[in-house]
Amino acid sequence: MTNTPHSESADHGYISDKDRYLARLKRIEGQARGIHRMINEETYCIDILTQISSITSALNNVALSLLDDHVRHCVVRAAQTDGPAAEEKLTEAADAIARLVRS
Fold first, then answer.
1. 39-46, long-range: CB within 8 Å, 24+ apart, which pairs?
2. N or C: which end of the chain has fewer CB within 10 A?
3. Where are its TM segments located (predicted)?
4. What rounded mean pLDDT belongs to the chain?
5. Which range (33-37, 57-61, 92-96) has the least confidence?
């Protein structure tokens, strides 16, 4: 996890949904532990792959939701200032989208 100057502020778009994000991530953690247990118990490969697909989908949904919050909050706020910060936020969003598409 990178620590950028932007991560120091507690005024991120997702803050209002922080508990919901944490609950979703806790479920994903449980799924990951379940996969660990499945491998330890030598569960059938396809069943494990199905669970991995489920986690991947859940993580993608969290990422897309965070991206949406970023655009609606951070990018919009920066765009209202119409300076270098706006361009920086747009670039960050575009880079995040590119990372999501590649994964």
1. none
2. N
3. none
4. 86
5. 92-96
Cα angle 6-2-81, degrees, rounded to a multiple of 5: 20
Residue 28 lies in a domain: yes
Task: Answer whether residue 1 is part of any domain.
Answer: no
Is residue 72 one of the residues assigned to a domain? Answer: yes
Identify whether the C-beta of residue 47 lies closer than 8 Å to the C-beta of residue 55: no
In terms of residue numbers, what domain contains 71? 15-102
* Secondary structure percentages of the chain, helix, strand, coil, to 5: 85, 0, 15
Q: Quick one: pLDDT at residue 20?
A: 93
User: Taking residues 50-64, what's their average pLDDT?
Assistant: 95
Instruction: Please list, in sequence order, all residues whose beta carbon lies within 8 angstroms of the beta carbon of residue 76, skipping any fewer than 6 positions away.
Output: none
Q: Could you give the CA distance from residue 98 to residue 96 in angstroms, rounded to a whole number? A: 5
Residue 3 lies in a domain: no
